[in-house]
Design goal:
By secondary structure, the chain is mainly alpha-helical. Helix content is about 85%, strand content about 0%. The longest helix is centred in the C-terminal third of the chain and has 65 residues.
């Protein structure tokens, strides 16, 4: 019985904490479709190339098709890994750009406040 009580207490403690935002490539609006497209293209390209080269080398049709299917699967995995690596960098760069824009807006607001305070100080002094 105490195990159930401990689990309920843990759930309550977790609900009180503020939610942290997690950046996910799967949640990115363009990344998901671009990765899917890259996977499909690399798989089709690997399939076509291996089938073409196998048939040109004189491999029987059924063996050439099996090799091409396996190459397509491997191409799918390679395309997925490469696209994921590229989109990680793209998402990180987008995050950096948003952060820099926020910092710049904060600096300009701070400058505007400082200028307004200086103008008020000059007006009261003069």
């Amino acid at each position: 019985m105490s195990d159930k009580k401990d689990k309920k207490d843990k759930k309550k403690k977790g609900a009180d904490e503020p939610a942290t935002k997690v950046v996910s490539i799967a949640a990115h609006p363009r990344a998901k479709t671009a990765i899917r497209r890259a996977r499909a293209r690399t798989a089709l390209a690997a399939f076509a190339l291996v089938l073409l080269f196998s048939l040109h080398a004189g491999v029987p049709g059924q063996d050439a098709a099996m090799r091409a299917v396996l190459a397509g699967l491997v191409g799918n995995l390679i395309g997925w890994a490469c696209a994921l690596a590229v989109w990680r960098q793209i998402v990180l760069q987008e995050i950096r750009m948003v952060n820099e824009a926020r910092l710049e807006r904060a600096r300009s607001r701070a400058r505007a406040v400082a200028d307004a305070q200086a103008a008020v100080a000059d007006a009261t002094a003069g």
